[in-house]
Amino acid sequence: MKYFIGIDEAGWGPVIGPLVIAGIKVEKSVLSKLKKSGVKDSKEFGEGLSAREKRTNVWKKISQQISGYHCELVSAKELDEKNLVNLIVDRIAEILNTLNWKKAEKIYIGMVGQLKKENLIFYLNEILKSNISPKSIVYEKKADKKYLPVATASILAKINRDREMENICQNVGIDYISGYPNQRTAKFLQDYWLAHHSLPPEVRISRKWLPLERILNETKRIV
């Protein structure tokens, strides 16, 4: 049985919420079915409720065809306190172990920031105490647009991040927001600050974004 592993993340750039890294294991013979079921880069579904529903519907269609999958979450607190690239590589190693990477014919990974392939493989070998062949890994920018295993993983990562954001929004009593730097996120942060004189949960305080920095400056003045 030949299978591929695809890995991608969702949540690199938000101000609020976790980063999610997802990995899927899929047999080579199933790839054409994934394409027919509508698998594509999660960003190509668009934004808003309609896009979230479309991604979820596609995942429901294909989940039974996937041989295995696993997600890792990185909290806002971890993202503030530790190196982002190191965190992602650690989680990729966890996913590879869970999906039994040694038996995979090929591993497809979406590029992690500016991390070079040789460095990625070096770090993975250190963590996994193994000797991964560079030929077994496809590691590229925009891999979610080029390779169905990565596109599938991008959908799973996005669905799980959306779910996390839904929970955060529900807990603070607001309608869904993505947590990415935009006008709705800025308004939510300002409104929450005015009401509570504190930041809402799961805010990445190390994220460089002017609306957030203004509120952080206000908190310093009060303290």
Spell out the CATH superfamily of the largest domain: Ribonuclease H-like superfamily/Ribonuclease H
Flag low-confidence runs.
none
Content-based structural category: alpha/beta
The first-level CATH class of the largest domain is given as: Alpha Beta
Question: What is the H-and-E element order?
Answer: EEHHEHHEHEHHHH
- Rg, nearest Å: 19 Å
Number of domains: 2
Distance between the termini: 61 Å
Helicity level, as a percent range?
A: 40-55%
> How would you sum up the global shape?
globular
- What is the subunit organization of this protein? single chain
Q: At CATH's second level, what is the architecture of the largest domain? A: 2-Layer Sandwich
Largest sheet: 5 strands, mixed
Please count the beta strands (DSSP E, at least 2 residues each).
5
Strand content: 5-15%
Number of helices: 9
Describe the strand arrangement of the main beta sheet, using strand numbers: 3-2-1-4-5
Mean pLDDT: 94
Quick structural overview:
The chain has 223 residues and is of the alpha/beta class. It is 49% helix and 15% strand.
Tell me what the structure shows.
By secondary structure, the chain is an alpha/beta fold. It has two domains: 3-168, Nucleotidyltransferase, domain 5 (2-Layer Sandwich), CATH 3.30.420.10; 177-222, Arc Repressor Mutant, subunit A (Orthogonal Bundle). It is 49% helix and 15% strand. It has nine helices and five strands; from the N terminus they run ββααβααβαβαααα. The protein has helices spanning 31-36, 48-62, 76-81, 84-98, 117-128, 143-146, 148-172, 183-196, 210-222; strands at residues 3-10, 19-27, 68-74, 106-110, 137-140. It has a five-stranded mixed beta sheet with strand order 3-2-1-4-5. A hairpin with an 8-residue loop joins strand 1 (3-10) and strand 2 (19-27). The longest helix is centred in the C-terminal third of the chain and has 25 residues, at 148-172. It is globular, with a radius of gyration of 19 Å.
